[in-house]
Specification:
The structure is a single chain. By secondary structure, the chain is an alpha+beta fold. The chain has a single domain (about 45-190), classed as HIT-like (HIT family, subunit A), CATH 3.30.428.10. The chain has helices at about 40, 55, 60-65, 105-125, 160-165, 175-185, and strands at about 65-70, 75-80, 90, 130-135, 150-155. It has a 5-stranded antiparallel beta sheet. A hairpin with a 3-residue loop joins strand 1 and strand 2. The longest helix has 22 residues, at about 105-125. The chain starts with about 35 loop residues before the first helix and ends in a 7-residue tail after the last helix. The model is unreliable at about 5-10 (pLDDT under 50). Keywords: Nucleotide-binding.
């Protein structure tokens, strides 16, 4: 197929939709259709500080809240609706919405926890890369826009397949509690204080 996207090793992906095939202004982007995300985008209900799951999590046990590590200003927990196995979130304890509202201690600790999470995920899962990012605000797709959180999504070569696209289902091969226990055990003790 002419114009089919290729991986760095030359593998063709004829099922992807290259930007040149779209009407209007062609571009270099491929489109990955994720209709399951529409629920986050369309749902205008955002939890208040009183029912915020990220505010409630630290009061629960690590096992119940799926917390992997706790710092002084921020903590790391598993995403309940992971994009990939081991999908983590880094949240400040304080209920702030934007990255620009985080104080320097929170921002610094979030960065350090992210670095540690990357090392732990690589060591335990052998992933090939990461997607790291924040959706700032409801309009940008933040499922919980009122409480700052950063996504750390481990990625493996060819980790996307037909399942999420055709069946609207993401196969997560391990139970969340199992993954939390493994990551928590591998987390360096000195960095979790």
């Amino acid at each position: 197929m002419k114009g089919a996207p290729r991986d760095y090793d030359g593998t063709e992906y004829p099922d992807a939709e290259p930007g040149e095939q779209f009407a209007a202004s062609p571009d270099a982007f491929q489109r990955l259709w994720t209709p399951h995300r529409l629920a986050y985008v369309k749902d205008s209900h955002q939890p208040s500080e009183h029912d915020c799951p990220f505010c409630a999590a630290p009061a629960k046990s690590d096992e119940e809240a799926l917390i992997v590590a706790r710092g002084q200003h921020a903590f790391v927990l598993l995403n309940l609706f992971p994009y990939n196995a081991g999908h983590l979130l880094v949240c400040p304890y304080r209920h702030v919405a934007g990255y620009d509202e985080a104080n320097s201690e929170e921002a610094n600790e979030m960065a350090l926890l992210t670095q540690t999470a990357m090392r732990v995920l690589r060591r335990t899962g052998g992933n090939d890369g990461f997607n790291i990012g924040m959706n700032q605000g409801e309009i940008a797709g933040a499922g919980i826009a009122a409480h700052l959180h950063q996504h750390i999504v481990p990625r493996w070569k060819h980790d996307s397949n037909f399942f999420p696209i055709i069946a609207g289902t993401k196969a997560v091969p391990r139970l969340l509690g199992e993954v939390r226990a493994e990551l928590a055990a591998a987390w360096p003790a000195a960095e979790a204080d």
